[in-house]
Specification:
heterotrimer, A mainly alpha (about 220), B alpha/beta (about 280), C alpha/beta (about 400), B: about 280 residues, alpha/beta, 2 domains, six-stranded parallel sheet, 6 strands, about 55% helix, elongated, C: about 400 residues, Immunoglobulin-like, Rossmann fold, 3 domains, six-stranded antiparallel sheet, 11 helices
Chain lengths: ~220, ~280, ~400
């Protein structure tokens, strides 16, 4: 019974949404929009559960003084500060504690939110992104070894593309790099796309028909 | 550990330090590469297309969509600036918009700076439309009437009052849609602008996305592509050689190219060292 | 001789002087209005033959009226345009805008009334009185279904308009079947037939073959390694939402891995980026422990939510990998730019790594940095592969069988 209800719901709604795709009528579009709204509402509730998990996880870390526990109060503090600053600062009618910035009166919370985002979130994200460059170097050094035919092909292709970027003026290399990207690469991309798309359809069908039940948990 | 084995197990921290030094030095010392940057065919396609736009003809405007955020700025900003300089040199009216909201700020900064540099006037030579939610609705709506999607510019001025918008109603008056994106916004422009309205579309993307764009290039859904920072440098060279030979302009991509090339050379060097170690130790064993 | 074809004049142009001749411009002809097919209604496409004097024109002006009603302007189009779609896209936004404004004004009015601020009340009431008729007028302009509309198109030249004949009435209506998607329906029926056929084959006990997928074969090895070393397993179910099929495929694999972890008493860590994925993953791991007969061994803190921010999530998972030093890392699902960050950090920590994604742009990074990579559709075959259940295996065969006709269609 515990699994029968979700499986039945999945079957019925899966078939209904499949039919909805082919029905352009207003009634069908209204149904789809309502379903999407329900999805957003469920997402909102799920976020509360996620938030509870986040708080519990870090509280447990602090309580048992697990390795790296000092970062947990910082994480919790950041959560509280950004939530408060964001909720107050981004509300159109809450102009609390106004200050003058560049001749304009804005709430200090609005000012703080904008600055936290621009001068902390964005640079931190950019920093993580730039670490990629270093990781590419170490991954390439470790992995591009001519151990087998396949790895030799990978190595040669990588060399050609990199050298084509550096020395494009050396004509054959540039043209070879271009050929590599526009012929074998394109063929492989199309193959993967085709396979993945058909796989996605098959998996969706398995889920709708209840053949695939792993996402529900349990094996029966 | 023997030398050859050690060569294949260099501490990654050494790799990172070498890479950091090799990237920083060309940027600080403003190293110039010998010879000129030669444009790849896909970059040249974009350049040639803009060259063929008649600034006084029917399809005279370029619609630029700034669809990237600060994280991908280093790769895409040189491309954007180069294309804008090209359009300014040819007096092509520019319409600027963004699909993600962060793009608006980047667009405003770039255009304000370049317009001052090239004596171009807002409202006459270019207009910043701003951002509206729902990319699909925005792109489809502009195929009907741009002013109905963006009744005003980002400053609140009605588009009908701006001289640059005179005679520009929808994609029929646009010679090229140029999308700069670090994610997959290029797909929206293909599906919802090029396919239903047959407007030429080109894209500037980060190097990681280049391989994904080739199927679209093959089917001519994109007329061209700018691939990463290198393409930005290539485009800068094309534009400078044609229109700004005697002017001293800041070529962001060209300046960063030595650092890019040096970092690639370092990676190639380390890969070679690793393979030397592999073959040497394999022979011994 | 100039023939006065003028039927109307635009408002802002002066009356011509007595001795000014009205220009002779041919209006557009053949105005046809038809319902846009395969939609929800509220759309009529209007087509016409261009005026022979199209090159001289300033614009075309399209007018619309209900049968027996007065004409009102719909839109102004550039010369050379020979069709337009009349719909409510813009008017809907205007209605929404006015409605929101009205709501806001009424809210402010209530506040002002509470504060007994008579000046503000007067101003707000005046604003509301100004907006309400605008809203009503805009609502009246909306194109309604099953209402006959007629159109005419005017050629505008130097302030004069030269109007076409009126079109036949057309009604917007919603269709119950999208004819443009019939090819999708055919493909779907074909594919489903394949699936049904192969399932029936499986139920008859036919011998099945599925090629080896190295990444899936290595799962046992990875879990065993973690057990021997007494270190945990890390499972990252991708960075996408539950709506992404790759995430569901990853969660299917999580079920098998969690059960093995429960049987061998190996700790498992499952950090999540999406709250809904977190709730599903938690249930899966909990059920896996129950199935293994060890419900008490389940640690609720082993499955947790971190953040929805992409790089913050990656930073957290990297920290987990460096602190907890898992012996086996599984990166299965949808990934973006962070794929190499995760895989390379996992490599630093010395774990065996199995990755699987259908994001083709990230596959090179996983192939370079991980021990095993499950590519694209192999991820979807995982649950069939691991369970060895015949009906699931036959689904994979159906997928393979569908490829040649798909390629032919392309």
């Amino acid at each position: 019974m515990k699994r029968r209800i979700p499986l039945t719901l999945t079957l019925v709604l899966g078939i209904v949404m499949m039919i909805q795709f082919f029905v352009p009528h207003q009634f069908s579009q209204d149904f789809k929009n309502t379903a999407l709204e329900w999805l957003r509402v469920i997402g909102g509730f799920a976020f509360i559960i996620g938030l509870a998990s986040f708080i519990t996880h870090h509280y447990t870390k602090i309580k048992h003084k697990k390795e790296g526990w000092v970062y947990s109060p910082i994480a919790l503090g950041a959560l509280v500060v950004m939530a408060v600053v964001g909720l107050i600062g981004r509300s159109p009618n809450m102009n609390w504690l106004p200050i003058t910035v560049q001749g304009q009166q804005i709430s200090v919370f609005t000012y703080l939110f904008a600055n936290f985002f621009t001068h902390m979130m964005i640079p931190l994200g950019a920093t993580m992104f730039s670490v990629l460059a270093f990781y590419i170097a170490s991954a390439a050094y470790r992995s591009f070894r001519a151990k087998s035919l396949v790895s030799i092909l990978l190595l040669v292709a990588a060399f050609v593309i990199m050298l084509a970027i550096i020395f494009y003026n050396v004509l054959p290399l540039g043209d070879l790099g271009e050929w590599l990207l526009s012929v074998p690469n394109m063929a492989a991309k199309r193959g993967i796309l085709l396979g993945a798309s058909l796989g996605a359809i098959a998996t969706s069908l398995k889920i709708i028909l209840g053949i695939e039940r792993g996402y529900l948990g349990g094996t029966k | 550990m023997k030398f050859w084995e050690r060569l294949g197990k260099i501490d990654r921290r050494i790799i990172y330090i070498v890479l950091a030094v090799v990237v920083i030095i060309p940027l600080i010392l403003t190293v110039k590469l010998p010879g000129k940057v030669r444009a790849m065919p896909r970059t040249k396609d974009v350049f040639d297309h803009i060259e063929n736009i008649d600034p006084n003809g029917k399809r005279r405007a370029i619609l630029i969509s700034v669809d990237f955020d600060p994280q991908t700025e280093p790769e895409l900003k040189p491309q954007l600036e180069a294309v804008v300089r090209h359009a300014f040199a040819r007096n092509i009216p520019l319409l600027v918009m963004a699909l993600p909201i962060q793009g608006t700020d980047i667009g405003i900064e770039v255009f304000t700076r370049l317009a001052e540099e090239h004596n171009k006037e807002y409202g006459i030579d270019y207009v910043i439309l701003g951002w509206k939610p729902s990319p699909v609705a925005v792109i489809l709506g502009m195929g009907n009437f741009i002013e109905q999607v963006f009744p005003t510019d980002y400053l609140g001025t009605p588009l009908s009052e701006l001289p640059v918008m005179e005679g520009i109603r929808n994609y029929d008056d646009v010679g090229l849609v140029m999308d700069f994106t670090g994610s997959s916004f290029y797909a929206y422009w293909v599906y919802y602008a090029h396919t239903p309205y047959d407007v030429p579309v080109a894209t500037g993307v980060t190097s990681v996305s280049v391989a994904d764009i080739y199927p679209f290039l093959g089917s001519r859904q994109f007329i061209g592509m700018l691939a990463g920072m290198k393409a930005g440098a290539e485009y800068e060279r094309l534009v400078k050689d044609k229109y700004y030979q005697d002017q001293d302009i800041f070529l962001r991509g060209t300046q960063a190219l030595p650092a890019l090339s040096a970092s690639l050379l370092v990676i190639i060097l380390f890969v070679i060292l690793g393979n030397i170690s592999h073959f040497a130790t394999r022979r011994k064993s | 001789m100039l023939i006065p074809l003028l039927l109307s004049q635009t408002e802002d142009i002066e009356e011509p002087a007595q001795d000014t001749l009205i220009p002779s411009i041919q209006p557009p002809t053949g105005v046809v209005a038809i319902d846009v097919p395969n939609d929800e209604g509220h759309q009529i496409v209007v087509r016409w033959e261009l005026s022979p004097d199209d090159a001289k024109l300033a614009s075309y002006v399209v007018y619309r009226a209900e049968e027996g009603g007065e004409f009102s302007q719909v839109t102004v189009l550039a010369p050379g345009t020979d069709s337009m779609v009349n719909n409510n896209d813009i008017l809907d936004r205007v209605v929404d805008f006015y409605s929101a404004e009205l709501k806001s004004l009424k809210r402010d009015l209530r506040k002002a009334q509470r504060k007994a601020d008579t000046d503000a009340v007067r101003e707000l009431e005046a604003s509301i009185k100004g907006i309400e008729p605008e809203l009503e007028a805009t609502r009246k302009q909306l194109l309604r279904n099953m209402v006959p509309y007629i159109y005419k198109v005017a050629a505008s030249y130097k302030g004069y308009e030269f109007i076409s004949e009126v079109s036949e009435p057309a009604q917007a209506r919603g269709q119950w079947f999208h004819l443009g998607r019939i090819n999708v329906l055919v493909a779907m029926i074909f594919f489903f037939s394949l699936v049904t056929f192969f399932i029936s084959q499986a139920k008859r006990g036919k011998n099945l073959f599925l090629r080896k997928i190295a990444g899936l074969e290595a799962i046992d090895e990875a879990v065993g390694r973690a057990t021997e070393m007494g270190r945990p397993i890390l499972f990252v179910p991708g960075l996408s939402t539950i709506g992404d099929i790759a995430t569901i495929a990853a969660l299917n694999i999580l079920q098998g891995i969690a059960k093995k972890a429960a049987q061998y008493d190996t700790p498992i860590i499952v950090p999540n980026r999406d709250p809904i994925v977190y709730t599903v993953a938690r249930e899966i791991v909990k059920e896996a422990y129950s199935d293994a007969g060890r419900p008490d061994a389940f640690n609720p803190d082993s499955v947790f939510f971190i953040t929805t921010s992409q790089f913050a999530y990656v930073a957290a998972v990297n920290g987990i990998m460096l602190r907890e030093k898992p012996a086996a890392n599984f990166f299965l699902g949808m990934f973006w730019a962070e794929s190499l960050l995760l895989a390379e950090t996992g490599n630093i920590s010395g774990a065996i790594q199995i990755a699987g994604t259908d994001a083709s742009a990230q596959l090179p990074f996983f192939i370079t940095a991980c021990d095993y990579t499950i590519i694209g559709e192999e991820l979807y075959a995982a649950s069939a592969y691991l369970s060895r259940e015949p009906t699931l295996w036959e689904q994979s065969r159906a997928r393979t069988g569908a490829k040649p006709p798909s390629l032919d269609c392309l």
